[in-house]
TrEMBL record, chain A:
Residues 42-88 form the F-box domain. InterPro entries: F-box-like_dom_sf, F-box_dom, LRR_dom_sf. GO terms for biological process: regulation of circadian rhythm; rhythmic process. This is F-box domain-containing protein. Its main location: cytoplasm. It holds the Pfam family F-box-like. PANTHER family: ES1 PROTEIN HOMOLOG, MITOCHONDRIAL, F-BOX AND LEUCINE RICH REPEAT PROTEIN 3. It comes from the Eukaryota. Keywords: Biological rhythms, Cytoplasm, Leucine-rich repeat, Nucleus, Repeat, Ubl conjugation pathway. Residues 1-40 are annotated as: Disordered.
Automatic annotation (TrEMBL), chain B:
Residues 636-647 have a biased composition (Basic and acidic residues). The record marks W320, W374, W397 as: Electron transfer via tryptophanyl radical. It comes from Mugilogobius chulae. InterPro entries: Crypto/Photolyase_FAD-like_sf, Crypto/Photolyase_N_sf, Cryptochr/Photolyase_FAD-bd, Cryptochrome/DNA_photolyase_1, DNA_photolyase_N, Rossmann-like_a/b/a_fold. This is Photolyase/cryptochrome alpha/beta domain-containing protein. Binds 1 FAD per subunit.
């Protein structure tokens, strides 16, 4: 008994204490359960029809299902029904790099052996270690007899797929591309995926691909993603970095053959200060809006202030704007002029000058705006009240750090929430941080 | 016969507003004020020298004040549970008094001592004076669960009677006939030890920036109020370069050790406000500093795992990176970000940093840049920060890392821009990082961007004399925001399903999730089906399949506290019942013998006593062995607690946070 607990400790990731406690805990759990089942005896659970059992099993966590499977042969059969194995999330963590538990290797083996052909929606959550990324690739390359609809490779901490040899990663990934033939969603952010592997993806899954997330994949070129857009006419959601965005890509996505795009997510990240960014023609954006009038354009900016030169010069159909670093008054002023479709705006930081006129302008011009978040900025209380008054109850999300609001002759911090609540038609308070 | 009393000092190191101490002398023949210290433990504890020095100064001050009343402080070398029985006998004690300790392990320790006292026929009197309110009353008012948002907390407070007035300080008059028998060798036996005696090397130790003690605290509060009166502005002072430095009006450490009564502070603020503002009644924000403290004490009082992520029902499980090297760089001020390093240097040297500086370094360590667990940062603060109190420290770290209390997470403090906004000239950095002194203001926050000629002129080459930045901030924040979003999206998804379908599942996702959260595929058939059926069993795996709705929003609509908050803590019930043995069992029958492997259960919060916690309260150090012993004494109480928790009525309340934990734990 004692020895048998050791692997669990390892799995624990060297976590706190607790082996002994778990042991006793387990006992009490078991006792309680036993008592429970006695009470319910005589109901002939074993005669429950398979389909009802399946339905019940669908609501149970894996572990509970595993327990139930030990009750009788019938329940054990139910446990292995393909319907219950369509979704699986592999969690790959090492004790040295994560606090979380990993999917047990035995379970992984079992799944590959008995259920890999049932898998349809698969994701891998890997921690920051190379070992975990390698383990994910090993599993991927064994998924030869399954047809996945969804595949997600998710780095939960520092991206570890990037540490693998590119060829190793690519060969594992292409196994899935080639075998699946009907991939619909693919999330491969922060991985060394490259142009040739995207070609394999397209060659095998062009009819089914609807979603592709590949932010920060440095080995993909604008031509590589253009190939995807050209061939996969069902693509509705796409996430990538700004350097992959081109006029050609937008034109391809708005071609006749292409379905309406629903989401386009662009990350604008600068590698070095003073980096030059290309521009996208207004006509290309116009083509997009004509083809997909309802599409969301989500843009995340992580730039230095002086790198915004090429942005917000022309009208842009952006709906969600996130400024992760300091952004100048000037740029925010331009946002008010060039973003008529803006729905959500988040400004994490700004200089020391209040954003009064900029906000008022945004309220005037961005008539769809319904959510705003302000971090390290300053706005005078009066201007803020004016802003809220102009937007009124269409502001469903209003997340303003308390420090942002500068009291002035009209409103102090204690009365501003009344005034704002009045215009919103609901109780509102600024966000607070602990004074600690 | 007049009783012989012991007053047991732990926190509350003061003679003013000390109701328990008042009880000790009421009608008593003798009184002895004791404080327990274990000198063999001190040197090896994880509490830094500044904190120990502050404590010893508090004790010396107490002793000096007691001398003026012809009494003394008895510093007892040893552990309370071991020594009390002897003291009860030796001093013929019939009354023991102490201040109420709201923290879970303090409560446990006190329960054990109470039992010892009762067995020895000693009456025990406990008084609340470390917090403004009886925390249990706040919890009661909130329906039995601690409030999990500060707003909610404020609402509750505004419905309560004002705190009790402070009681008079101990004086000759109050002492009356009560005396303290003091032996000739008192100094040898019971004197306040020196830092050397505790095993600290004090060579080269600079003098204390924050001197400990009640006398100092009372001087400071007068200065504090004078300054407030002078500016006649009771709003939160706006941050500037000066506010980063240790101030002679700072009070946080004095409140932490109880050198200053929070109620005295409360009423002095009230009086001043009324005097200056003429008759208008003070707003709650006047007491901000005190209420935040109170908020975290309330959140922690019934949660022994408040300082942990695992098994903590109010803490979101975030897959933090385990990275000892990066953690060490942060703790040792070698991140290569001058703003962060200067703050960490100030913390190590002086024991205090401004609250916005705390936000900056905490954000950098956790969700902002390094993605390292808040627990690690909390431990470093526990070592270095004078005012670090278990509840407040853990609570603030959870808050700042967006691990609890329903925070918006979009806002990350920039390790370059935030400092620059606060102190454009960079004087703070030059003060604590003399190596960067030669840099002009333009580059002092990002010296790695300075041209070589500037670095040469500053006599500081980046990468040689001062480290290069350890992370690419833009890239790190992009990654981290994305991860936070994923975590919170799952959370809100679970919120809907989490309440076991008793709440409409539209709740959590009402804001319209976004594709960016996870690869959301809108295939109504398979997907909808899957996410509802599997979402809750094996939910996470369902998630890549679909966020059924899509917008780009990263602003989250948290459900109102009334719905989610109160249900969060106290989920031990569900947890207990849900904890299931091995993930392994699916391979059952064929591999019976393997069933014991892979045993992943979350430690039971109501029954587990974490051994690591032993070190937290340094004022009364406890040996691990003793701690276990202590446990035995209160099993009865514990059992009752779990019975209560096990009762059905709490079962239906279920919390998404908790659900998520459970699910991750099980997979």
């Amino acid at each position: 008994m004692k020895r048998s607990l050791e692997p669990s400790e390892q799995q624990d990731g060297g976590g706190t204490s607790g082996t002994v406690k778990k042991k006793s805990l387990k006992k009490s759990q078991k006792l309680r359960r036993d008592k429970h089942s006695e009470e319910e005896g005589g109901l002939h659970w074993e005669r429950l029809p398979q389909e009802i059992l399946l339905h019940i099993f669908q609501y149970l966590p894996l572990l509970d299902r595993a327990y139930a499977s030990q009750v009788c042969r019938g329940w054990n059969q139910a446990f292995h029904m393909p319907e219950l194995w369509r979704c699986f999330e592999f969690e790959l963590n090492q004790p040295a790099s994560s606090y979380l538990k990993a999917t047990h290797p035995e379970l992984i083996k079992q799944i590959i052996k008995r259920h890999s052909n049932h898998l349809q929606y698969v994701s891998f959550k890997v921690d920051s270690s190379r070992e975990s990324a390698e383990a994910a690739c090993d599993i991927l390359s064994q998924l030869v007899n399954c047809s996945l609809k969804t595949l997600g490779l998710i780095s939960t901490a520092r991206p570890s797929f990037m540490e693998l040899p590119k060829s190793h990663f690519i060969s594992a990934l292409t196994v899935v591309f080639v075998n699946s033939k009907s991939l619909s969603s693919l999330k491969i952010d922060d991985t060394p995926v490259d142009d040739p592997s995207l070609k394999v993806l397209v060659a095998n899954n062009s009819d089914t691909l609807k979603l592709l997330k590949m932010s920060s994949c440095p080995h993909v070129s604008p031509a590589g993603i253009l190939c995807v857009a050209d061939q996969c006419h069902g693509l509705r959601e796409l996430a990538l970095n700004y350097h992959l965005l081109s006029d050609e890509l937008l034109i391809a996505l708005s071609s006749e053959k292409h379905v309406h795009l629903e989401h386009l997510r662009i990350d604008v990240v600068s590698e070095n200060p003073g980096q030059q960014f290309h521009t996208i023609k207004k006509s290309s954006w116009d083509a997009m809006v004509r083809h997909s009038p309802k599409f969301n354009l989500v843009m995340y900016f992580f730039l230095y202030e002086d790198e915004f030169g090429p942005f917000f010069r022309d009208e842009i159909p952006v709906t969600h704007l996130y400024f992760g670093r300091s952004v100048s008054k000037d740029v925010l002023g331009r946002v008010g002029l060039t973003c008529p479709r803006l729905v959500e705006l988040v400004v994490c930081a700004n200089g020391l000058r209040p954003l009064d006129e900029e906000l008022i302008r945004i309220a005037q011009r961005c008539t769809q705006l319904s959510a705003i978040g302000l971090g390290e900025c300053e706005v005078s209380c009066s201007a803020f009240v004016e802003f809220v008054k102009m937007c009124g109850d269409r502001l469903t999300q209003l997340s303003i750090m308390e420090e942002v609001l500068v009291p002035d002759h009209r409103y102090g911090l204690d009365d501003i929430h009344w005034e704002v609540s009045k215009h919103l038609g609901r109780v509102w308070f600024p966000d607070m941080m602990p004074t600690w | 016969m007049a009783p012989n009393s012991i007053h047991w000092f732990r926190k509350g190191l003061r003679l003013h507003d000390n109701p328990a101490l008042r009880e000790a002398i009421r009608g008593a023949g003798t009184v002895r004020c004791v404080y327990f210290l274990d000198p063999w433990f001190a040197g090896s504890s994880n509490v830094g020298v500044n904190r120990w020095r502050f404590l010893l100064q508090c004790l010396e001050d107490l002793d000096a004040s007691l001398r003026k009343l012809n009494s003394r402080l008895f510093v007892i070398r040893g552990q309370p549970a071991n020594v009390f029985p002897r003291l009860f006998k030796e001093w013929k004690i019939s009354r023991l008094t102490f201040e109420y300790d709201s923290e879970p392990f303090g409560k446990e320790r006190d329960a054990a001592i109470k039992k010892l006292a009762m067995e020895a026929g000693v009456e025990v009197i406990v008084k609340i004076s470390h917090t403004l309110y009886d925390l249990d009353k706040i919890i009661e008012l909130n329906g039995g669960q601690p409030p999990l948002t500060y707003k909610r907390f404020q609402t509750l407070i505004s419905r309560m009677d004002p705190p009790e007035m402070p009681v008079d300080a101990l004086s000759d008059a109050l002492m009356g006939r009560c005396v303290t028998p003091v032996s000739e060798d008192h100094g040898d036996k019971y004197g306040v030890p020196s830092l050397e005696e505790l095993g600290f090397d004090i060579e080269g130790l600079p003098s204390a920036v924050w001197p400990g003690g009640e006398t100092e605290a009372l001087t400071r509060i007068e200065r504090h109020l004078e300054r407030k009166a002078w500016v006649a502005n009771f709003e939160r002072p706006r941050m500037n370069a000066n506010s980063l430095l240790a101030s002679p009006t700072g009070l946080s450490s004095y409140l932490r050790f109880g050198c200053l009564s929070c109620r005295l502070f409360y009423y002095k603020l009230t009086d001043l406000y009324r005097k200056v503002k003429k008759n208008s009644s003070p707003p709650l924000s006047l007491y901000g500093q005190l209420l935040w403290r109170e908020f975290f004490y309330t959140a922690a009082t019934n949660n022994p795992r408040f300082d942990k992520m695992e098994g903590n029902p109010i803490c979101v499980r975030i897959p933090w990176d385990r990275n000892p090297e990066a953690l060490a760089k942060w703790a040792e001020a070698k991140t290569g970000f001058p703003w962060i390093d200067a703050i960490m240097t100030q913390l190590r040297q002086e024991g205090w940093i401004h609250h916005l500086a705390r936000h900056a370094v905490a954000c950098f360590l956790t969700r902002g840049d390094l993605w390292i667990s808040w627990e690690e940062g909390m431990k470093v603060f526990e070592e270095l920060l004078l005012d670090a109190d278990w509840s407040v420290n853990a609570g603030s770290w959870m808050w700042l890392s967006c691990s609890s209390f329903f925070q918006q997470f979009f806002h990350c403090y920039c390790p370059v821009g935030f400092g620059r906004r606060t102190d454009p000239n960079g004087d703070f950095i030059r003060r604590y990082l003399p190596v960067l002194r030669g840099f002009p203001a333009k580059y002092i926050y990002d010296p790695w961007n300075a041209p070589e000629s500037v670095q040469a002129a500053a006599k500081c080459i980046i990468g040689v004399h001062y480290p290069k930045p350890m992370v690419h901030h833009a890239e790190a924040s992009r990654l981290n925001i994305e991860r936070m979003k994923q975590i919170y999206q799952q959370l809100s998804r679970y919120r809907g399903l989490g309440l076991l379908a008793s709440v409409p599942s539209t709740n959590g996702n009402g804001n319209g999730g976004m594709m960016a959260y996870s690869p959301g595929e809108q295939q109504p058939g398979a997907n909808g089906n899957n996410s509802s059926s599997n979402g809750h069993g094996h939910g996470v795996s369902g998630s890549p399949v679909g966020t059924a709705n899509g917008s780009g929003s990263i602003l989250l609509n948290f459900d109102s506290e009334e719905q989610t908050g109160p249900s969060a803590v106290g989920q031990q019930t569900t947890q207990q019942q849900r904890i299931k043995p091995p993930s392994q069992t699916q391979t059952q029958q064929q591999q019976q013998q393997q069933q014991q492997h892979g045993y992943h259960s979350v430690p039971d919060t109501s029954q587990t006593i974490t051994s690591s916690r032993v070190y937290h309260e340094f004022a009364v150090p406890q040996h691990p062995g003793l701690h276990l012993h202590t446990r035995g004494g209160i099993t009865g109480k514990r059992e009752r607690e779990s019975e209560r928790e096990g009762s059905g009525e709490e079962e239906q309340a279920s919390c998404s946070v908790h659900k998520m934990q459970r699910q991750s734990a099980e997979t």
